[in-house]
């Protein structure tokens, strides 16, 4: 796995296929313009499933170093599972990463820890995709002092069947900071990330096989506070990544730091 900081764009369901391929075209141009500074990062874009193929065509034509990821997938490759996404299909469509356990899926679609565990385990067993496993507490859990217990429960469940020497990205995404006005403070973030590292180590995932990134209201204004001073191994950007002008400005900001 890359040892460069990750910049992961989660486009959610914000762009229709033609909008996604347009956004990918302009992102490729932006990446080229700032390639010298951006070479220091690993840039991954997760479009919605129906846009992946078109985005992959854009990347292939331009020989771009941008990687693709899915936003979710099922724990079987084929079968009578109406509406589900096969992890193998993601791989064939050109993805090398896949987000699993995003809080919007946990909250809106009722995904449980047990389901996420099966997804992570199957993805690791059946494909070479790297899982981007999302964890994070709600506002209520935070206010009642349960951040550590929630993270511990989610990580123990999601990562318990990850084979040895398998790379994993963990995204710490406190639910209350997603789509919010302000992200978590870098100080609070560093505390949570240190705890996540400790848990991953205890689960037998050595440092060289894991990256722990932060997600939740990251914009061009705040991105540097999470990337500098070793606060995190990267960022997962949601809303701001599907608005081209905003995302390009974020990339310009990080490309310029020395
Ligand atoms: P946000 O979303 O950047 O819009 O807060 C992050 C995410 O949900 O992955």
Describe the 3D structure.
The structure is a single chain. The protein has 258 residues and is an alpha/beta fold. It contains 11 helices and 8 strands. Bound molecules: 2-phosphoglycolic acid (PGA). The site of 2-phosphoglycolic acid has 13 residues, from strand 8.
The largest sheet, given as strand count, sense and whether it forms a barrel, is: 8 strands, parallel, barrel
Structural class: alpha/beta
Present as ligands are: 2-phosphoglycolic acid
Strand percentage lies at 15-25%
- Alpha carbon gap, first and last residue: 23 Å
Strand order of the largest sheet: 1-2-3-4-5-6-7-8
Radius of gyration: 17 Å
Q: How confident overall, as mean pLDDT?
A: 95
H/I helix tally? 11
List the helices and strands in order. EHHEHEHEHHEHHEHEHEH
Portion of residues within helices: 40-55%
Which parts are unreliable, with pLDDT below 50 for 5 consecutive residues or more? none
Principal-axis shape equals globular
Can you count the beta strands? 8
Summary, kept brief:
Helices cover 42% and strands 16% of the residues. The protein has helices spanning 17-33, 35-38, 52-61, 87-92, 103-108, 113-126, 139-143, 147-158, 186-202, 223-227, 244-256, and strands at 6-10, 42-46, 67-70, 95-100, 130-135, 168-172, 210-215, 234-237.
Topology summary:
Elements: E1 6-10, H1 17-33, H2 35-38, E2 42-46, H3 52-61, E3 67-70, H4 87-92, E4 95-100, H5 103-108, H6 113-126, E5 130-135, H7 139-143, H8 147-158, E6 168-172, H9 186-202, E7 210-215, H10 223-227, E8 234-237, H11 244-256
Parallel strand pairs: 1-2, 1-8, 2-3, 3-4, 4-5, 5-6, 6-7, 7-8
The protein binds 2-phosphoglycolic acid (PGA).
């Amino acid at each position: 796995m890359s040892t460069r900081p990750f910049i992961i764009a989660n486009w959610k369901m914000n762009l229709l296929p033609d909008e996604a391929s347009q956004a990918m075209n302009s992102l490729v141009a932006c990446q080229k313009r700032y390639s010298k500074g951006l070479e220091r990062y690993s840039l991954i874009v997760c479009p919605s499933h129906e846009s992946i193929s078109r985005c992959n065509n854009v990347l292939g034509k331009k020989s771009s170093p941008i990687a693709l990821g899915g936003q979710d997938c099922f724990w079987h490759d084929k079968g009578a599972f109406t509406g589900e996404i096969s992890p193998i299909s993601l791989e064939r469509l050109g993805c090398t990463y896949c987000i699993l356990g995003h809080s919007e899926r946990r909250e809106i679609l009722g995904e449980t820890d047990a389901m996420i565990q099966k997804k992570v385990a199957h993805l690791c067993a059946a494909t070479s995709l790297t899982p981007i496993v999302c964890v994070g507490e709600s506002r209520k859990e935070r206010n009642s002092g349960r951040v550590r217990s929630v993270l511990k429960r989610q990580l123990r469940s999601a990562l318990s069947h990850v084979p040895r020497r398998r790379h994993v990205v963990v995204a710490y995404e406190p639910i209350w900071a997603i789509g919010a006005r302000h992200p978590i403070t870098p100080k609070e973030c560093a505390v949570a990330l240190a705890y996540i590292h400790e848990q991953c180590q205890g689960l037998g995932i050595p440092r060289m096989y894991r990256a722990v990134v932060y997600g939740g209201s990251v914009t061009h204004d705040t991105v540097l506070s999470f990337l500098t001073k070793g606060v995190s191994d990267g960022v997962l950007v949601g809303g701001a990544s599907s608005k081209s002008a905003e995302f390009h400005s974020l990339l310009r900001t990080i490309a310029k730091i020395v």
